[in-house]
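Students often ask why we bother encoding 3D structure as a string. The short answer is that it lets us treat folding as translation between two languages. Here is a chain of 102 residues written in the first language.
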Amino acid sequence: MPGFVKMATLNELPPGSAKEVEYEGRIYALFNVGGTISAIDGICPHQGGPLADGPLEGTCVTCPWHGWQFDVQTGKTPLGTRIKQAVYEVKVEGQDVLVAVV
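And here it is in the second language, the structure alphabet:
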């Protein structure tokens, strides 16, 4: 059963922004798309690029290293169904952004 960990505040993650957070050796990428907070595995599976540093258009983030794209809400990519980023459940309590960790 996952536990929730505070990884940011809403002030640190305004709409249209992203934030990289390391927790227990894992990198998470948090995104605010129109007030909806999403969290995915922050490392691109291609060659380890930092997804939180990539441009965000709508719900699609593009890896800044080689252009791989992922939907920040579903983890899916236009590259096919065999590749998918892990997506983590997010809760907002007051100003705190909490992410489910295993």
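Translate back mentally: The domain at 3-101 is CATH 2.102.10.10 (Rieske Iron-sulfur Protein). Keep this in mind for the problem set.
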